[in-house]
Write a structure and sequence with these properties.
Strand content: 25-35%
Distance between the termini: 32 Å
Largest sheet: 5 strands, mixed
Structural class: alpha+beta
Shape: globular
Radius of gyration: 12 Å
Number of domains: 1
Strand order of the largest sheet: 1-2-3-4-5
Order of helices and strands: EEHEEEH
Low-confidence stretches: none
Length: about 100
């Protein structure tokens, strides 16, 4: 698996946060399927977590995955502050 995107991640409660650390680097969204496959091996029960990412513009957005942990699509959060993004993703999970 050849992932050319730089990324970091952390768990915030039940939400996995993926960071694209460098502005001007390859977009995280281009390699999201491969990144999720790697993270499935590193993060227990990934399919049951909410997932968000921060892009190189420092904006958080959401990621939908299926029950097997495969990428479905992205959804807008449009937040620059992690706590605000986490609040939105939790509300999104409730209204679905």
């Amino acid at each position: 698996m050849n992932i050319r995107t730089d990324y970091d991640y952390e768990l915030c409660g039940n939400t996995l946060v993926i960071y694209s650390p460098k502005q001007g680097s390859r977009s995280l969204i281009r390699d999201i399927e491969q990144i999720l496959q790697v993270l499935k091996k590193r993060v227990p029960c990934l399919a049951f977590k909410k997932i968000i990412y921060r892009d190189s513009e420092r904006v958080f957005e959401g990621i939908h995955i299926d029950q097997a942990g495969h990428f479905i699509d992205f959804y807008p959060l449009g937040e620059r502050v992690l706590d605000l993004a986490l609040n939105k993703v939790n509300r999104h999970a409730l209204t679905g």
